[in-house]
Write a structure and sequence with these properties.
Layout: H1 2-36, H2 38-47, E1 55-60, E2 63-71, E3 77-80, E4 84-87, H3 93-104, E5 113-119, E6 124-129, E7 135-138, H4 145-151, E8 164-170, E9 173-179, H5 181-185, E10 201-204
Parallel strand pairs: 6-10
Antiparallel strand pairs: 1-2, 1-5, 3-4, 6-7, 8-9, 8-10
Length: 205
């Protein structure tokens, strides 16, 4: 009788262990997923290239006078106490933090600098013409022509979809980049679906 009791108890313990094992594995997998989840967002944020019009927040640990918002000027730079004029346009927050740290280290020992994008106002594209929602769009980090058309609600029934072009300003001149919708939507000449740059205008005749 005792032997049967112990055998049954062992059998029950083994059965419980088998039932609980998948639950424990699932909990461990979920914990790993939760720990890893923030990584992609951080990666996207660290790769964002600052544009004129963006509002940044720069702070130096334990230095209240060096904790302030800075607006990136139209020429792509900003000024910060002790660091002087800093070129920001086209650079990531990590690159800006490194440069500010190097400049301020001459005046402040053992400093810790943080740089964050508070408002993304500069990375704008424009979609005009025969689309359902023409206007300007703030994009982060980048979009291509097809994605821009989607942001604008797609083309209207009157659009000349094979006459679409991108108007891009480069220094003191402008150039056009043709975009034939039918080609791209059918997987042909995909190089037309360019990544848009800040200030680009997608024209849908």
């Amino acid at each position: 009788m005792c032997v049967q009791f112990f055998v049954r108890k062992i059998w029950l313990l083994c059965a419980a262990a088998l039932l609980l094992a998948p639950l424990a594995a699932a909990a461990q997998a979920q914990a790993r997923a939760n720990n890893a989840a923030p990584a992609p967002a951080r990666d996207v944020a660290s790769r964002y290239e600052v544009q004129p019009g963006d509002l940044l927040h720069v702070s130096v640990w334990k230095e209240e006078d060096l904790d302030q918002d800075v607006l990136v000027r139209p020429d792509g730079g900003f000024s910060f106490p002790l660091a002087g004029d800093v070129r920001a346009a086209g650079r990531t927050v990590d690159e800006l933090r490194t440069e500010l740290t190097e400049r301020l280290a001459r005046f402040i020992p053992d400093l810790f600098v943080t740089v964050a994008v508070r408002e993304i106002n500069g990375n704008k594209i424009y979609v005009i013409g025969q689309v359902n929602r023409p206007g300007q769009f703030v994009v982060n980090p980048r979009v291509d022509v097809m994605q821009a058309l989607s942001l604008a609600g797609g083309t209207t029934a009157f659009a000349s979809v094979n006459g679409i072009f991108v108007l891009r300003r480069e220094l003191d001149r402008q150039r056009t980049l043709p975009f034939k919708f039918d080609d791209v939507v059918n997987g042909k000449r995909l190089e037309q679906n360019v990544i848009l740059q800040s200030g680009d205008v997608v024209v849908v005749p």
